[in-house]
Please model this.
Amino acid sequence: MSYFRPAIDLMSGYIPGEQPKPGTSIIKLNTNENPYPPSPAAIAVLRNLDAELLRRYPDPFAREFCQAVSEVLDIPTDWIVVGNGSDELLNILVRACAEGDLRRVVYPMPTYVLYPTISAMQPATTVEIPYPADWKLPIEDLVAARGALTLIASPNSPSGHIVPLADLRTLASQLEGVLAIDEAYVDFAPDSALSLVREFDNVIILRTLSKGYSLAGLRMGFGIANPKLLAGLFKVKDSYNIDAIANLVGAAAMRDRVYKNNCANLVKESRAQLAIELQQLGLKVGESHGNFLLATLLDGQAEQLYLGLKERGILVRYFNRSGLQDKLRITVGTPAQNSLLTQALAKLLRI
Model:
């Protein structure tokens, strides 16, 4: 006899990227963390926290952080919902919108591998629409799938491509359900779909402080949508999902736009240089608007190369999934880290 619901017995759990122990001497380029430290303003808040904040329950709506988002993005505070990372907001959306086969979750593939996992937990039927070779958004197929919730990552992981705003607008206008646009990597991209939340009350934009703001360990994300849509999500959200520390540290980081943009520009410069160096080693690299690159090995030996790098103290991401077995996703590190990566690759590839 199982202790769990049938859906849990049948599903496969999400497998996060490897996390070495703190202090381990390793170059970690597998989970798309920002290689630069968080804002000094955020660190200053952390060092000067009043211990009284830890005794009391935190603000259930993280209003200090919402105020910071409002100031930076010119969005009313009642258009913002805060989550324990954008992953929690994805989970809230699935729980609030999707159920079984009548209320499906729809998304193009390949994309963020958490989407099918959180759908299976509900459980909700998923419809996976393959991306074509040119990564053009398959709008007609997505609409025909009639999802209660449609998930689009832009920039997308692991491909790094960005979905044109016009395509997202067309999709939003034709969907009957909710369209969630996952902008986890927007700080490294040239454009955002934020304007769509004012055009369509079925659109929500999801963002995180894990990537552009170097706060993956803080677990802070937020969604932006019409209050009519947020009303249902607040019913599902845990009462105190954002702790008092994250509320204040996240607000300080959010307000320090100059520092965040400077770090993002450094990553983009390194991304361009790393793409050139990987191509010189014989790898095929597509254009990326995230803080990572998707590299294709022409001989298809991606898993062996991943293991070879791991033996040399360098972690990259290998996905043993259809359409990705010949590819590695490589987080953009500092120039020094990228140099050590390409040197190790050259040796493994015998170039």
